[in-house]
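ligand=pyridoxal-5'-phosphate
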Amino acid sequence: MRSVLNRTDGPAIVCAQAGNVNTGAFDPLREIETIAHAKSAWLHIDGAFGLWAAAAPSLRHLVDGAARADSWTVDGHKWLNVPYDSGFVIVAHPAAHAAAMTQSAAYLLRANDRERDCQEWTPEASRRARGTAVYAALRSLGRRGLDELVTRCCRCAGRIAARLGAEEGVDVLNEVVLNQVLVRFRSRSGENISPAVAARFQREGVCWAGGTEWRGEPAVRISVSAWKTTDEDVDRSVESIVRAHAASR
Ligand SMILES: *Cc1c(COP(=O)(O)O)cnc(C)c1O
């Protein structure tokens, strides 16, 4: 990254990831921030689900350095479990944010000076009150509830990895740092049968996890993010996955 930025002139945007979609891994945000800002690049963090780690004291170290980024994107429709299209953009430079978003036309009413004018913050002029569900979720969970939700999902992911990892022919491919478990299923002869196993447990319907590709080979991506998921759900899900694996081998 340092050498690419050295070769670049003109404005640059660096996009770092907090929470890889397959593994849940975090880019080294503090180090990236130091390099990006030394070159006056804008540092954006894609933290769609991963930035919620900041809400859990036991996981907060994962987002170390994020506070110095220029902008974040975070989703409400994942870990906060509110309806789709509830995304947040958090920008450290209000003037740049407003300059990028503000639109005006003679027929559009403007808020008076003391009011926040929503048209200065989002790309669209009209939208439903998405904030209501988000506010309700945050108020009902509170600081401790949010911590509990995030921490429990991660603990459940660890439990899945420990249980599946103990099975013959199941490889857990990632170090579970958050709520993602990446697994590969093998037949008795060692063939990768991940898509067949996924199709089978998806049909059984106890749990759902999707297929993905990791380092050029199919794998299954297990993501724990529902507010309702408990250790019992995890155990039932693991049993279903193990059944599907046994039947596919
Ligand atoms: C879900 C996700 C996105 C896409 O965001 P949407 O708001 O759902 O469109 C981008 N990046 C990461 C890491 C994600 O998990």
